[in-house]
Amino acid sequence: MKICRYKIGNAKGSTSQHVGVVEGDQILDVSKAIEILPAMRWPLEPGDQFITNLDALRTAITVLLATAPRVPLDSVELLSPIANPNKVICGVANYPEHVKATGKQPNDHGLFFKAMSSVVGPAHGVELRLPDRITVHETELAIVIGKTGTRIARKDALSYVAGYTIGLDMTMRGDEAYSFLKSPDTYTVLGPCFVTADEIPDPNALDIKLWVNGELRQNENTRRMVFDVQRLIEFTSSILTLYPGDVILTGNPFGATRVFDGDKMKASIEAIGTMDVAIRNYAG
Ligand code: MN
User: Fold this and answer.
1) Separation of CA 140 and ligand 1 centre (Å)
2) What residues flank ion ligand 1 with Cβ within 5 A?
3) How far is the CA of 59 from the centre of ligand 1 (A)?
4) 51 CA distance to ligand 1 centroid (A)?
5) Are strands 188-196 and 119-120 parallel, antiparallel or unpaired?
């Protein structure tokens, strides 16, 4: 199942948010499904409420699909498919070119995190917060964790995955800490939809592509990841607890290039989809 979050039409000023199932170039509006979610009370349990309740939601969604209103996919504004991840965790140097360049394996770099406030959907676009600085695109398979776990063994790792989406890990170049360079608002783009794990039995064999203004800049396959999806979950959960809705970005393929005000990115991962993301300077 391909699940998206979206606003209808021109979203400026619109507060109407929807949940849909993507079928080809159509979205089936199943927003009513979220009525089954339990009312929230402070303090909240860690984790995204939608993913925590995914099994029950899928049952509700399946019932709604038969009569769901349809809207064209290209008529909506896509939001981040994961609304409230507890954290966005990032793998480092996870393709052979980076190992060769640095002489280090991915675990030698450890991990880093991106601020939750950096997460947007494709329709929002990326705002270059400090336009005089170099910002590059990193196009990554994003793992969405489905259930709470820590010290997860490799053999169990895929059972902790709810699904996958595309992650753009936008990055400023510089000597500052990664938290500074990678966490400006809008620097984590998730989309176009969340694809449940049952549709992607092998996440370690997916084509990844990114175009800027129609020119192919990144062209990779996840089978070349140094740490595969299972190993990333094992490594990540060796030091922390993963919660439903947590996002693990699996590392950037070779070929990150600078982006500028007015550029149009198109990111694609096999079996997930394609998303268009515009770049503009931050206007305050
Ligand atoms: Mn990255």
Assistant:
1) 7
2) 138, 169, 252
3) 34
4) 23
5) parallel
CA of 242 relative to ligand 1 center, distance in Å: 19
d(CA 221, CA 253): 8
The tens-digit pLDDT sequence of the chain (284 residues) is 999 999 986 545 556 889 999 999 999 999 999 999 999 999 999 999 999 999 999 999 999 999 999 999 999 999 999 999 999 999 889 999 999 999 999 999 999 999 999 999 999 999 999 999 999 999 999 999 999 999 999 999 999 999 999 999 999 999 999 999 999 999 999 999 999 999 999 999 999 999 999 999 999 999 999 999 999 999 999 999 999 999 999 999 999 999 999 999 999 999 999 999 999 999 98
Whole-number Å distance, alpha carbon 248 to ligand 1 midpoint, is: 10
Distance 252 CA to ligand 1 centre (A): 5
What's the CA-to-centroid distance between 137 and ligand 1, angstroms?
Answer: 9
Determine the distance separating the centroid of ligand 1 and the alpha carbon of 236, expressed in angstroms: 15
Distance, CA 16 to ligand 1 centroid (Å)?
A: 32
- Given a contact cutoff of 8 angstroms between Cβ atoms, the answer to whether 180 and 80 are in contact is no
- What is the C-alpha separation between 236 and 110, in angstroms, rounded? 9
d(CA 269, CA 251): 14
Cα separation, 116 vs 100, in Å, equals 31
CA 275: distance to chain centroid?
A: 11
Helix or strand run (H / E) with residue 182: helix 178-182
Show the CA angle centred on residue 199, arms to residues 163 and 216, nearest 5°.
80
Task: Give CA angle at 199 (29, 231), nearest 5°.
Answer: 125
